[in-house]
Design a protein that fits this description.
- The chain has two domains: 182 residues, 3-Layer(aba) Sandwich (Rossmann fold); 58 residues, no CATH class.
- Helices cover 30% and strands 16% of the residues.
- It has ten helices and seven strands.
- Strand 1, helix 1 and strand 2 form a beta-alpha-beta unit.
- The relative contact order is 0.16.
């Protein structure tokens, strides 16, 4: 993207710092970038042609800004590994949503145009049975009350909460007494989250391929090719086969309530 004649501005949202296991799939960084916020790296890579606002936020916390003057942009591009969050991003219903994914040796890119009848993320991806709700996941990592994380993310951490947290989480929470929950969670994601032995990073060339397809769809959009047909592209590096599916969303899906009714001219009548 940096080499292309693209100018403008964007919001970059990611809660994490770069970790050692990310190096392979983040093709533009190396060991020197480990422990630096991912959004800051994006800002530096795209500067100066693209003005990046770096937001190291949990996605659900970032959405609070939308209630305080920040508008939903017409184009959203995501590379996420959590289906619950991908559904949440889709439900902002931007003009166009580009979803890039890589798992094992499989690559997939879904492009959903708001006014088209193509498959949206809500119907394309089912939430796995073992996937935690976002607040439950953050509660397990921090010891905070999941109900308060969801309902009062900007509220202050209380002594009652701290005393009800697991013993190993209490020292960190006592240091954050009286501070906003969202701020403590964001700091922990950036500074305290360490290596996860159960985490399996995507294969670099699969991630790179998903990114290339996502970049191509982004360029089409920027050049004005905003056709109503959505895209569901899949590539298998095991079989070397690829396909572009033409799947329509169910008429009962909430995305279809956003599609304007076709107009009929008087002459046609």
């Amino acid at each position: 993207m940096k080499r292309l004649p693209v100018v403008g501005r964007l919001q970059a949202i990611d809660r994490q710092s770069l970790r050692f296991e990310n190096i392979g799939s983040y093709v533009a960084v190396g060991r020197e970038s480990v422990s630096r916020p991912k959004v800051v790296l994006i800002r530096e890579l795209l500067s100066p042609a693209i003005d990046v606002t770096a937001r190291h936020d949990q996605w659900e916390f970032f959405k609070i800004w939308l209630d305080h003057g920040l508008r939903v942009p017409p184009l959203i591009i995501a590379g996420l590994d959590n289906v619950t969050t991908r559904h949440s991003v889709q439900r902002l219903w931007p003009e166009t949503f580009i979803d890039m994914a890589a798992e094992g040796l499989q690559s997939q890119v879904i492009v959903k145009h708001k006014e088209g009848d193509g498959l949206c993320l809500l119907r394309a991806l089912s939430i796995p049975p073992g996937e935690d709700d976002w607040a439950q996941s953050l509660a397990r990592a921090t010891g905070l009350d999941p109900a308060l994380i969801a309902k009062e993310p900007t509220g202050e951490i209380t002594l009652v909460e701290i005393e009800g947290a697991p013993l190993d989480k209490q020292p960190e929470l006592r240091a954050a007494l009286g501070k906003p929950r969202c701020g403590h969670i964001n700091r922990q994601s950036l500074q305290m989250e360490g290596y996860d032995a159960d985490f399996a990073p995507a294969v670099p060339f699969v991630t790179g391929f998903s990114g290339v397809v996502g970049a191509a769809e982004t360029m089409k959009w920027l050049m004005g090719r905003r056709h109503p047909d959505s895209l569901h592209f899949q590539k298998s590096f095991e079989s070397s086969r690829s396909r572009a599916l033409e799947m329509k969303c169910d008429p009962s899906c909430e995305c279809q309530s956003l599609v304007p009714e076709p107009t009929v001219s008087r002459a046609a009548v």
